[in-house]
Specification:
The protein is of the alpha/beta class and 346 residues long. Helix content is 48%, strand content 9%. It has 16 helices and nine strands.
């Protein structure tokens, strides 16, 4: 019952999952959200690091304060101190008015430092100083300004390796790594894909004003079989597009070509042919019932051409066919498509 309550609490935030590694993340969030401790969130791009940071803020004593997010990789050296600490009017050319920096804006709230692993040496030093002293001066100013912010940092890089290589300060690493939270990539928690897919489809249907769209068994099989290099963000994007461009249900043909081709056997010397040959590859990647195999072959020929950018030799290699056989089937598929188009026009 407690586990279910924990799941429901964070699913409201858009963080969906019941895999054991996600349950461990939820448990950590439950423990640290009510504190003022610094949290370092690690994970690949697209795993939802900012969602986690926002959930921590919303369940913290600072929830009524500001949540300020900044990409450390986007902070340029020339305007770095001005961005962090603000500036006084006339401090430099173009400073026509006094401006608050992010540490002042985020005071009494949460400061989310995204892509901390890509921060410059100058930024690392400035961050360390203000984290130690909890005070700073605006550029061109003399008055010390106190700041009370909670730091949440995120990275898609291994900070330990960066420390060992000298690219990241060891003292700053210890300042940030008080409570570590590691988000697993989607491929390592694939059992969450059905739950995530239903959540994203329901949300996309609501936003688009469409009726609920079920996901077919074949489409779900392809979603489960794909590696998702873009993680949860990529799955969300794929299903948003399927909702907007699909029909009453989300079927396998509503998914992008890279997801559909993921069901093919691994590529070998002769192409994508499996032990059963190219015919086996066709059958492996399509539903077994209720579909005309010839029609599916034609679709796969055209999809291979799309994937190969129109290069016949490369498309033939993808399907494990000879150039001559592929070209013959391409002409048939193109003719069938043209006939279908004329029939529909008529």
């Amino acid at each position: 019952m407690l586990r279910q309550q924990l799941l429901e609490r964070f699913q409201v935030e858009g963080i969906v999952g019941s895999h054991s590694r996600m349950l461990a993340v939820f448990d950590t969030l439950q423990r640290v959200s009510g504190s003022h401790a610094t949290v370092l969130i690690s994970g690949e791009n697209g795993t939802g690091k900012e969602l986690i940071a926002r959930a921590i803020h919303r369940h913290s004593p600072r929830k009524n304060g500001p949540f300020v997010g900044v990409s450390c990789a986007a902070l340029t050296e020339t305007l770095l101190e001005s961005e962090l600490f603000g500036h006084e009017r006339g401090a430099f050319t173009g400073a026509v008015s006094t401006r608050k920096g992010i540490f002042e804006v985020a005071s009494d709230g949460t400061l989310f430092l995204d892509e901390i692993g890509d921060s410059s040496p100058k930024l690392q030093l400035d961050l360390l100083r203000v984290l130690d002293a909890r005070e700073f001066r605006r550029v061109g100013g003399s008055q010390l300004i106190k700041t009370d912010v909670r730091i949440l940092a995120a990275t898609n890089r291994d900070l330990k390796q960066l420390v060992e290589s000298g690219a990241f300060r060891l003292d700053l690493y210890y300042r940030l790594n008080v409570i570590p939270v590691t988000l697993p990539p989607l491929r390592e928690r694939s059992t969450d894909i059905p739950q995530l897919a239903e959540y994203f489809v329901a949300r996309a249907c609501k936003e688009a004003g469409r009726s609920p769209m079920p996901i077919t068994t074949e489409a779900m099989r392809l979603l489960l079989g794909y590696d998702w290099p873009g993680n949860v963000r990529q799955l969300d994007t794929v299903l948003q597009r399927a909702v907007l461009l699909g029909g009453r249900v989300i079927d396998y043909m509503d998914l992008p070509i890279e997801v559909r081709f993921s069901a093919l056997p691994p590529r070998e010397a002769g192409g994508l042919a499996s032990a059963a040959g190219a015919e086996g590859a066709y059958r492996y990647a399509i539903p077994a019932e209720g579909i005309d195999l010839e029609e599916v072959k034609q679709k796969f020929i055209l999809q291979a051409m799309e994937m190969a950018g129109g290069a016949i030799a490369e498309a033939a290699e993808l399907l494990g066919l000879s150039y001559r056989t592929f070209y013959y089937r391409l002409m048939r598929a193109s003719g069938a498509q043209a006939d279908t188009g004329q029939a529909r026009t008529g």
